[in-house]
Design goal:
The complex is a heterodimer of chains A (110) and B (113).
Chain A: E1 3-5, E2 10-14, E3 19-21, E4 24-26, E5 32-38, E6 44-49, E7 60-61, E8 72-74, E9 83-91, E10 97-100, E11 104-109
Parallel strand pairs in A: 2-11
Antiparallel strand pairs in A: 1-4, 3-8, 5-6, 5-9, 7-8, 9-10, 9-11
Chain B: E1 4-7, E2 10-13, E3 19-25, E4 31-37, E5 43-50, E6 53-57, E7 64-67, E8 75-78, E9 87-94, E10 103-104, E11 108-112
Parallel strand pairs in B: 2-11
Antiparallel strand pairs in B: 1-3, 3-8, 4-5, 4-9, 5-6, 7-8, 9-10, 9-11
The chains are: A mainly beta (110), B mainly beta (113).
Chain lengths: 110, 113
Amino acid sequence: AQRVTQPEKLLSVFKGAPVELKCNYSYSGSPELFWYVQYSRQRLQLLLRHISRESIKGFTADLNKGETSFHLKKPFAQEEDSAMYYCALLSYNQGGKLIFGQGTELSVKP
Amino acid sequence: DTAVSQTPKYLVTQMGNDKSIKCEQNLGHDTMYWYKQDSKKFLKIMFSYNNKELIINETVPNRFSPKSPDKAHLNLHINSLELGDSAVYFCASSRGGSLEKLFFGSGTQLSVL
């Protein structure tokens, strides 16, 4: 079964601390993975996708096929990073659909 | 200029009623979606349309009927509303399929009493 798991519902860190939001997936093919973010009172928006191998707002995510993980990392968290983060897997069944994880709320304290 | 707009923002209604949520995108995208976010913030796809054609239809009760009059609009009609339908419904669009960046609307919070 295709599935995305974000084991932490809430992650709280202090400003300047490293942060890692965990994401594990289950998919039989070659996965396409994304991180979406929803800041307070804003729309859900794409943060980064693994095919682009990009760093956005200091965040990076590396696909680890051996561990079936796509954890989101940032070396020094900022207060403005506080938001809801969703990991998503693209499933090519039925023309392609995004399967989202349960979301992790990141709270960065001053 | 709002890229993906959905109305209403809030919808409070009684069980058994029929209601619609409208969505419009001005990005010229070919694909539109409806997602449901439950009380635990779990986000799940309901439907996907590409150029007015239904592409994805998840296991959704047939009380939910999407309608796409043109590729810029995807409305969601819900018949005989139930308590369990209470959720936030998000519309989204993308240029192609889900591999492309999805642009989301601000959500419609539906409360069924």
